[in-house]
Design brief:
Blueprint (H helix, E strand, L loop, with lengths): L34 H20 L7 H10 L2 H15 L4 H22 L2 H11 L9 H15 L7 H31 L1 E4 L9 H13 L6 E4 L2 H10 L3 H12 L11 H17 L5 H6 L7 H32 L11 H13 L3 H5 L4 H16 L1 E5 L13 E7 L5 E10 L9 E6 L10 E9 L12 H18 L13 H11 L6 H7 L11 H9 L5 H18 L9 H12 L15 H4 L10 H18 L7 H12 L7 H9 L6 H6 L7
Parallel strand pairs: 5-7
Antiparallel strand pairs: 1-2, 3-4, 4-5, 6-7
Length: 690
């Protein structure tokens, strides 16, 4: 890449990672005061690099155009690793002010690159050249991805349309940021404090954790129910206080929808209108058509076809589940009609009645530390990875709760990378669970090792108590670790190939969930936190018998969100009222009154705090079709889920290539055919379509 001279700047956020393991982020030196100058310097440097590539007098080639583009922006990339920590793990009003100011500037910066006509002409010349045919397959794919990325983001437009496209992106960046911060404000701003006489039904562990949270917030002697899923879900499952269940439910599901300064309805309406206008400039009929053009599904129609094939079976199962719950409520003389805030509570009673399965009993065997060990075991068996804890203090972390492990090859001892874990909920941390990287594997400029991370929002236990989690939370923990393994197993040459196709990259993580219930994990790692005894055979059998229990609820709440997402992005948004649109769409779909969308529109961060999952939330189900089908490959193998031959194909075709292979080709190489929907329906206990 041509050298680019820039005035020196002493800024830790721009500096190369230093220290062991190929260098690590200086999380212990993060300072908000240097974030803005780091971003500004990094953007200026990156633009100068791009200009040097675009103005190269030599004829465009892979070596003088594509390769230097892959290398450009390294300093700015490092700044974004710190930005991600401030944004997701330790947000604050001070950071949000910088975020709000810089988001539009970052959008303008991106537009200057994608709309650089000279640069795009060089890329186009390479893309259309005969030389491409003689390149390696991964280089051919890289060129296609780079070209498509520019073309899909306005590079082919005329000057006026380019200007409007960039202006829309700038406004959207501000709206996405505001949407996410509004949700976070409602999560931080609403905490329900209850007293000792309101604890009926709650587990001892939950009570201790709620007490510790209240004490930390200056409410000693009370119990805090925070406005996050990790606190809400167990409360709704076990609390005997119906009026409090309703209050917790309404507070959680009204995030961003309270008619105040943090209300997101107007923001949603503007986002939808701008997205629609922007893709119209590119010639698309609607936003979803543009979004899915480079996904496995290909078109909104194919995504809808899958969802609509499953939807009738899901809501049919809900009717059965509600009938079972209502029967128990009537038998107890509750004198109620099942409402949304009753669903989890009475579902738990049905679970006990039908399967003699108590979720709280299962929880006693699900210790966070043991689950972590179980994930390491699975990674060792399938990927040949070994995990060893890094001594505290030897690698900088951004919070005392964060722990770090070194990942090595079990046979050679070669360092693969590091794995960071930030497990607990706290103020300033966004809700949910996610995985990310601070450095990805590449080989084009020397081999780099991986810095991967998982982030959760488990409720921190009282001092000296083990962290016990639900089966659902344990499943999510394995899911997110699947993303980390996808990062760690990468074997690609170029940074762009470490990206992914959204309705495919959830597949690898969803697949890893299956190992939680394997005998090898259950017998060794799911042990009682007090007795140390493994989970008894009868309890394990109850879990297996209840595997399809409550699938009506889980499938319907998810699909409702995915269908509403797709309807939002295939509808003319002119004059749209999100509250009314959501309500009317669900009515048209026949949404059961006892269930709400998993993510109501006003806190649907997947699709409105950015564009990663917009018109793409269906991707979890698309990936689950692959997951169920791939699982049967293991079930059919002599060694089951730990069959060495199938595991080797799994790593070779589905994990190592990342985006260096077309996902459909990669899956066919693994399975020998395309995936079938029948295994998905069998997994959920639904009728298999003819």
């Amino acid at each position: 890449m041509p050298s680019v001279e820039m005035p020196a700047i002493d800024n830790v956020l721009l500096s190369e990672f230093k220290g062991p393991y190929g260098g690590v982020p200086a999380f212990d030196k993060m300072d908000l005061s240097v974030l803005k100058p780091a971003l500004e310097w990094g953007m200026e440097k990156n633009l100068k690099e791009v200009e040097a590539i675009a103005n190269n007098p030599e004829a465009p080639t892979f070596e003088n155009t594509i390769l230097p583009m892959e290398k450009s922006g390294e300093e700015l990339g490092r700044v974004f690793e710190y930005w991600g920590i401030w944004s997701s793990n330790k947000s604050s009003p001070a950071f949000r002010a910088i975020q709000g100011e810089m988001a539009p500037k970052l959008s303008e910066f991106s537009s200057k690159i994608t709309q650089n006509e000279k640069l795009f002409n060089r890329i186009k010349a390479i893309y259309e050249s005969d030389a491409v045919k003689d390149m390696r397959p991964d280089q051919q794919r890289l060129i296609k991805l780079v070209y498509d990325g520019f073309a899909r983001n306005g590079a082919t437009l005329n000057a006026d349309d380019k200007a409007r496209y960039a202006a829309i992106n700038k406004r959207l960046s501000a709206l996405h940021t505001k949407f996410g911060n509004n949700v976070l404000a409602d999560e931080e701003g609403y905490i329900l404090y209850i007293n000792e006489d309101q604890l009926s039904g709650l587990s001892e562990g939950y009570i201790k954790a709620a007490a510790a949270t209240a004490t930390a917030n200056g409410k000693d002697g009370q119990y805090a129910i925070t406005n996050t899923r990790s606190s809400m879900s167990p409360f709704l499952t076990y609390s005997d206080e119906r009026d409090l269940r309703q209050k917790v439910w309404e507070t959680y599901y009204s995030r961003g929808d309270n008619g105040d300064e943090h209300d997101n309805n107007d923001i949603i309406a503007e986002i939808l209108q701008l997205r629609d206008e922007r893709v119209a400039l590119l010639g698309y009929d609607n936003y979803a058509q543009w979004r899915l053009a480079d996904r496995m599904a290909g078109t909104p129609e194919r995504a809808l076809e899958l969802m609509e094939a499953v939807w009738p079976a899901a809501i049919g199962r809900v009717a059965e589940e509600v009938a079972d719950m209502q029967a128990i409520a009537d038998k107890e003389g509750a004198d109620i009609t099942i409402a949304p805030w009753d669903y989890r509570y009475y579902a738990e009673k049905v679970r006990k009645d039908k399967y003699d399965l108590d979720s709280d009993e299962v929880k006693q065997y699900l210790q966070l530390d043991k689950l972590t060990d179980a994930m390491f075991f699975v990674a060792g068996e399938l990927f040949n990875f070994s995990f060893a804890p890094v001594p505290k203090g030897s690698v900088p972390v951004f919070h005392p709760d964060v722990n770090v492990w070194e990942v090595t090859d079990k046979d050679s001892g070669e360092n693969i990378g590091l794995w960071y874990l930030d497990p607990f909920a706290r103020p300033g941390k966004r809700s949910g669970a996610w995985a990310t990287t601070y450095r990805s594997h590449t080989t084009y400029d020397g081999v780099t090792n991986v810095l991967s991370s998982n982030n959760s929002n488990f409720v921190k236990a009282a001092p000296g108590e083990p962290v016990l989690v639900s089966w659902d939370d344990a499943t999510t923990f394995f899911h997110e670790f699947g993303h980390a393994l996808h990062f760690l197993s990468s074997n690609v040459a170029y940074p762009t190939l470490n990206g992914g196709v959204r309705d495919y990259t959830e597949f690898q993580s969803q697949l890893l969930e299956r190992w939680l219930s394997t005998d090898e994990v259950v017998e060794t790692y799911l042990i009682h936190h007090e007795t140390g005894e493994p989970m008894p055979a009868d309890l394990r059998q109850k879990i297996k018998d209840a595997a399809t229990f409550n699938q009506g609820f889980s499938t319907t709440e998810y699909l409702a969100s995915a269908l509403v997402d797709m309807r939002y992005h295939t509808t003319d948004p002119t004059g749209i009222d999100p509250d009314a649109f959501e309500r009317e769409t669900l009515k048209e779909l026949g949404m059961p009154e006892e269930i709400v969308m998993r993510h109501r529109s006003t806190h649907f961060g997947h699709i409105f705090s950015g564009e990663g999952y917009s018109a793409g939330y269906y991707g979890y189900m698309w990936a689950d079709v692959l997951t169920s089908d791939a699982s049967e490959a293991f079930q059919e193998a002599p060694g089951g889920y730990y069959d060495a031959d199938v595991a080797a194909k799994l790593v070779k075709y589905l994990f190592e290539p990342r985006n260096a292979m077309d996902p459909a080709d990669a899956y066919r190489a693994f399975r020998g055919r395309d995936a079938d929907i029948a295994p998905l329906m069998r997994d959920r206990g639904f009728p298999v379509p003819e």
